[in-house]
Amino acid sequence: MPFRPAPAPPGNATLPRRRLLAALGSAGLALPLAGFMPLSAERRAFEAMLDSEGRCLTPVSAAAPGQAPRKLTLAWNATSICTSPIEVARRSGILARHGLDVELVNFGGSTEALLEAIATRKADAGVGMALRWLKPLEMGFDVKITGGTHGGCLRLAGPASVGLSTDLNSVRGKTIAVSDMAGADKNFFSMLLKRHGIDPDRDVTWRVFPAHVFGLALDRGEAQLFAAGDPIAWTLVRDRQLVEVATNLTGEWANLACCIIGVSGSLLKSEPRTVAALTRALIEAQHVAASDPRIAADAFMDYAPGRVNREDLIAMLQSHTHGHSPAGADIRREIQYYAQELKAVGVLRANTDPARFAERVTADVLSIPA
Questions:
Q1: Phi, psi dihedrals of residue 118, rounded to the nearest 5°
Q2: Which of 61, 287, 295, 361 has the highest local Cβ count within 10 Å?
């Protein structure tokens, strides 16, 4: 039978502070996260963390008495709004409550270099786009996927004046600007077009531009659309009143996670409880962001581009599905689905078995007792 992603829990509603605290407790019941605190403890911790408007205050100190937190290094992209729950996890004390002291490293190099850093323990873990990681993982990097963080954040858009609409067929014959021919945006929209009968190699043209000149490329007619992630994609659509043809929540992909948690294979072997704790903490932070995106927006303000304000960030986060954070068998099924689609567009090798691949690159760590 074809894979059908499970429905994602609602994760883009802004809730008042009281409902946020209740939602944190219900999130622990909705997912097999044995390390979550009881609701009463969550309430005490987050009452200390939030002001009356739901904004982050002083981080909660929660290291176990007499026990030093486990120090880890986590690689992330600090300029991507969708990764802001990682900063929520750090500054709110979620990581500390799980016995972790995590140093965040803003990794600006290539994906292959990032994954090599994790595989060789220059970093212990990282968060990134599944569609950018799966090809290097096929090549053998010793990195295991332990969960997904959210869905959404990739957009395909352009001006209506060139004939674009929400009908995917309107992209036929057009040039799409991308920043990387192996990027997650190029891979995703290639899969989406292929699934809808549009040949991504013949029916459209892909052209590489630096992301900061996408608008200029549209103005000059050198491209009619762009494919990119937030906040760049969201701000271009807003500022230029562009048509959003599709996103990575379109159609069959509405209930899939686009970003994933990857950990060093050697760390998983030697310290499975540490990996489980990190995964639980990051997923917990995703549900905080889903319950009230204002918290994640505030955490991201130090990293936001100059022309993006707090309300913009909240709107972006509300368009994502931070309440969808699969782990265990669920993330394995989603990775298998992505592998099938990447194989269909020639990104993964023709002899790769999607089911075996997904089994090899994922690890079910939430079954490990806290």
A1: -70, -45
A2: 295
